[in-house]
Amino acid sequence: MAHVGLVGIGVMGREFALNLAENGHTVSLLDRDIEKSREVVSAGSALKGELIACADEKTFVEGMVAPRSVLVLVPSGGPLDSVIESLTPLLDQGDLIADLGNSYYKETERRVTACEAAGLQFLGMGISGGAEGARNGPSIMAGGSQESWARIKGPLRDAAAKFEGEPCCDWFGPGGAGHFIKMLHNGIEYADMQMIAEAYGIMRDGWGMEAAAIGDVFAGWMDGPLNSYLVEIAAEVARATDPETRKPMLDVILDRAGQKGTGRWSVIEALHLGAPASMMQAAVEARNISADLEGRRESALLFGAAPEGRFDRAQKDQDDALKSALKHLESAMIAAKVCAYTQGFEVLRRASEAFDWSLDLAAIARVWRAGCIIRSVLLDDISAAFEEDVTRKLSHAPKFTELLNDNAEGLKLVVAQSVTGGLETPALYAALSYHNASRTQHSTANMIQGLRDRFGAHRFERVDAHGELVNGPWHER
Ligand code: 3PG
Q1: Which CB contacts under 8 angstroms, 24+ apart, belong to 82-86?
Q2: Omega of the bond prior to 174 within 30 degrees of 0, cis?
Q3: How sure is the predictor about 316, in pLDDT bands with cuts at 50, 70 and 90?
């Protein structure tokens, strides 16, 4: 009999099934195409746990130890709902369905309610790490009832990535909390990737560097605070050669970015919560604009193509000048990364307050230290910063204040040079703008308040009368 069932033998499902079996779990497999399940059974024949290919829902359910735990790895939305619908009549009261896809957290809340009404338990679980992570250890973020979590956490902790022996796998709160955290993970991932793409653009278009040399710069960053999975694979991508044309791979990849929606959801949710998320927004916008290849070509004909030229050709040839420019770029990336993480965790804090989730920010940072796409050397420091004082904004924790203070000048220089060179660096620009706005003591919101009151009598607070809302003199005329 199987300890756990897994529905959906796509890329992630296949790898996760093998991972569970490697960790000694017997897993029932179900897919519309039984051949896929059979292939996994043969691929995992030498593993500790047994994999069992099931021909239909009935065999699948009957072959599991009760109370049953079913992991579902199918595309979110319709396909997930049909799996739930087909299993519900066959499952017994108290059985558990866990959705490991990238579902929208409000949909997860709806499914929790519907399953509980049918006497079943439901968990919404984000998993990150791609196919490699699913096989060798992903990062897992669960939400739903704690009782359901207690039931399934054993096999999941076994399969999860480990950071210094600790599984990167946890339960964070009721309802859609797990999927909200996974969504935000992807929002930060979007910002991280956009910053990397901008750094690549500065080196390629601003300084005329070749892809392989750019790859070497990324690889060099692995020795400092930018050490992260995404920077590591950026080096690999930049250094790779196309086997067909022998050109750098980056030169044969069309500059039109795709997206599946989690970045966009993160921005929309942040806006609803009133939490600044300008770096994720810049990243989503950049992908949106990149998608309009034809529009960009037409605009380039009308207005001239950006960037308008290399930053400083004379300087480019001087090794020392390039060295110092690269140092500034690394600084800019470090400062911007602190801003991106600060924004990301503030969105999570707002969500926790608004939805009464009591999210443990330190624990979230802990499960992101290994296995997931945004894993980075800074995440251990982030968890420590929140363990020390969870009420404090990340950038106000001494380690991060220092990182930002030491690197903000680089961010300013890089953004200024990009702006004057006509080179688009929206995420870096958003970071600088956020950093500046966040430390402005006397902002211009007094003008906004004056205008709101002038046209809409919305009232404002006076600096000399704390808290009291008053109208300006303009209404008296
Ligand atoms: C994924 O879920 O595969 C990625 O983390 C985000 O996907 P996207 O870049 O296609 O939106």
Answers
A1: 83/7, 83/8, 84/111, 84/114, 84/115, 86/57
A2: no
A3: low
According to CATH, what is the number of the domain 182-438? 1.10.1040.10
Q: Are residues 257 and 290 in contact, defined by beta-carbon separation less than 8 angstroms?
A: yes
Query: Which atom of ligand 1 sits closest to the CA of residue 185?
Result: 5
Q: How many angstroms separate the alpha carbon of residue 177 from the centre of ligand 1?
A: 19
Expressed in angstroms and rounded, the spacing between residue 37 Cα and the centre of ligand 1 is 25
Q: 310 falls in which pLDDT band (50, 70, 90)?
A: confident
Token reading at 144:
């739903």
Domain borders along the chain are: 4-175, 182-438, 445-475
Distance 260 CA to ligand 1 centre (A): 6
- For residue 186, which atom of ligand 1 is closest to its CA? 5
**CB under 8 Å to 325, separation ≥6 — which residues?**
207, 311, 315
Q: What is the pLDDT of residue 312?
A: 64
Q: What is the pLDDT of residue 221?
A: 98
pLDDT digits (tens, 9 = 90+) for 121-164: 999 999 999 999 999 999 999 999 999 999 999 999 999 999 99
Q: Does the beta carbon of 103 lie inside 6 Å of ligand 1?
A: no
Task: Name the fold adopted by 4-175.
Answer: Rossmann fold (3.40.50)
Q: How many helices (H) and strands (E) does the chain have?
A: 21, 12
Q: Is the CB of 192 under 6 A from ligand 1?
A: no
DSSP sequence for 86-144:
HHTTTSPTT-EEEE-S---HHHHHHHHHHHHHTT-EEEEEEEESHHHHHHH--EEEEEE
Task: Please indicate whether residue 258, judged by its CB atom, sits closer than 6 Å to ligand 1.
Answer: yes
Q: Ligand 1 pocket, 228 CB below 6 A?
A: no
pTM over 0.85: yes
Mean pLDDT, rounded, for 18-22: 98
- Counting ligand 1 atoms within 8 A of each CB, the residue from 190, 230, 260, 368 with the most, and so the one to mutate, is 260
Whether domain 445-475 has CATH 2.40.10.270: no
